Structure formats: structure tokens, C-alpha cells
Predict the 3D structure of the following.
Amino acid sequence: MSVYSAPWYTPAVQRLLDLALEEDVGRGDVTTSSVIDEAQEAEGDITAGERLVVCGLGVVEAVFTRFDWRTRVRMKVADGDPVAPTTTVATVRGPAAALLAGERTALNFLQRLSGIATLTQAFVGAVEGAKLRITDTRKTMPGARALEKYAVRIGGGGNHRADLSSGILIKDNHVALCGSVREAVRRARATAPHSLRIGVEVDTLAQLDEAVEAGAEVVLLDNFSTRDLSEAVRRVRDRAPRVVLEASGGVTLDRIREIAKTGVDVISIGALTHSARAVDFSFSVRPAEAGRGSSDR
């Protein structure tokens, strides 16, 4: 699958769109039905209200066409494009009732996904030139993970595990139940599919040593200080250069450059999805021009 592959038409996203429209429209848009003629045609522009990275135009199209198949969305830019304030990113044309009823749901997705892409691009730009990957985590809105991880990719980041079946990551609670990092790694080595790398989350340099000695292939350094990250890299590069070192926890835009300088391979950031601010878009609707046909992309 291409890094830019969009998940609009996966079953999970289709269910999410159904839920979102059901939630917002309820039993019908009573305001629109009371003041707008059923035959009224309209068109509208979706405009950026600030500098941002666009993401989610495919969802906008899916929302409007799912509400009414006659609606057409003409995209003026593409996902991943940086735009300035007042830029029109898409024009929508169709039955006025569809545009008015679908507006909030479409903008909610666009604002959320563009916010994630914009924040991701800021983090990626802050470590430009460093030989590492910026990734997300599983700290996503329930039901929206595929969309939010897509937004991270659009912003230039990478994806961590998509779900619990995508990789082995032994965390502190696994260690507590197994008795030690070494025992947890031993059990994983004995039973896990050979195609999956074994990752371990550690809180201390002592646990790091134990994980490497036990044969962990990926070590997540959780909430390490910058000094301890540098020490972790020094120890592992000397003894097990193929082990992937991932820094996570306490990563901010102010601190990410110093983390990158320690030499870690990956920096995973939950804030890309759980703390991204919804960016500003507006949707201005007007009567459609008579005799002008609907336009596709």
C-alpha cells in the first residue's frame, strides 16, 4: 500500500461516516427542510482560515456524496499541500439540502485531519536532516485510527502499530505479570511468529541492558532524559548495533531537536493524534448559477 493510500472506502471508515452522519443529522435537518426548497441547487467554497497542511478532502467528498449522490466536489488542492489563509481548497455543488446538512460533518473531519497533518509536519520539519523517523502511536480517537494515521503520513510522519496484532511490544504491565523483562522476552521468543520483531518498553538503563541481553530487537525508551537517551544509544551501538532504539514520552517541539541529536532511530509522539488542534476552515454557500453543470474533480 502506498504511503499516501487513502482509507476512505474501507469498511471501517464507511461505518464511521454512517455513524457521523447519523449523529449529526438525526431524523433530518429540520431547519433546512423548513426554509429551503427541495429543488434548490447550491454551490459553496471550503476555505482555509489559517496557514495549514490540507488533509481529508477525500472524506469531504465521501460525506457529501454519501448524503446525496448528486453532489459533486471539485478539489482545488491535494492532501499534503500547504495553504495560506483564504485559500479555497474545494468547491461543492449539488442539492442545497445536501450541502447544508453535510457541512458540519465534512468540516469536522477536514479540520481534525488537517490539524494532525499540520502538527506532524511541524515535528518533522523540526528534525529536518536527522536520520530518524517520526511516528504516531495508538493514542487515536476510537473508530478514527485509519484516518488519523493517514493524516500523520500526509504530514510526513510514519505509522507505529496499527493495532495489537501488528507487532509485539512488551510494556510495563506485561513485565509486571511475567516477573522480568528477560522472562517476557523469552516467552515472546518461544511463541511469537518469526516474522514479528520483538519490542520492549523500558523505563531505566538497567532494563535497557536486560532487554538487549535477552534479545529484544526494538527497545522503546519511555520518558528518558536527554542524557539517558544519549547513554542508551552509546551502550546499544557498541553491543547490538542492529537494535532499533525508539524515544517516546515527553516529546515536544521545543525538545525534539535535542532528542534527535542523541542518535535514536525513531521518535514516537502520541500528541500527533491525541493533542492536535482542529484547524480553521469555513464553508460559504450560495445559489448555484443557472445553466451551469456540476463539475467533477
